[in-house]
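User: Hey, quick favor. My workstation is busy. Could you predict this chain's structure for me?
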Amino acid sequence: MPVLVITGTGTEIGKTVVTAAVAATALAAGRSVAVLKAAQTGVAPDEPGDAREVARLAGAVTATEVARFPEPLAPGTAALRAGRPPVRPAEVAEVADKLATEHDLVLVEGAGGLLVRFDAEGGTLADAAALLGAPVLLVAAAGLGTLNTTELTARELRARGLELPGVVIGSWPDAPDLAARCNLADLPEVAGAPLLGAVPAGAGGLAPAVFRRAAPGWLAPRLDGTWDAAGFGRREAP
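Assistant: No problem, here it is.
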């Protein structure tokens, strides 16, 4: 798995923190890691973006972006309003392929959900994943409403012939409600893929050294971690 694409069921659900956890866990396993943000929106030219945040939390990763736009909008809209060329799926794939020749693992983080448009032609992160032939890790919310968006995204991945290795819960609450606890069983069922982790709420606010030590315990062995889905489910069962 030299390239892993990371998408979410929407925005603000923990994609960047999950990406950092995957990166930190791979680094702890002795792998070299690059993180590529396909399209960074909502930050000024001199502000750190998501790739830099992954590097801050995870450690010695190569962090880069294909492009960034100042307004917090979908990449295609943000590019149009900024009067700049949009990101194209082929550009994302080209940069990721080059990084993959120099690193053991390349993590490509999307913006928003799988089908958020990069350009006026409707290019998306899914198109970039197809060009790369890369699996797509899905980050989902924990609570009420997540089953619908998770199943829709999983269906779209399957329809495009893209591999979905599993789902990671982007922000597992300290005091999960009934819906969140039931979703531990329901999420893998609707996704047709296993749960591969649950990152605790607030993990992005941890000191980097603490984050790096804890990250392998949030992710399953498929992602180089030690998290046990069955044990976690028994502990949190309703």
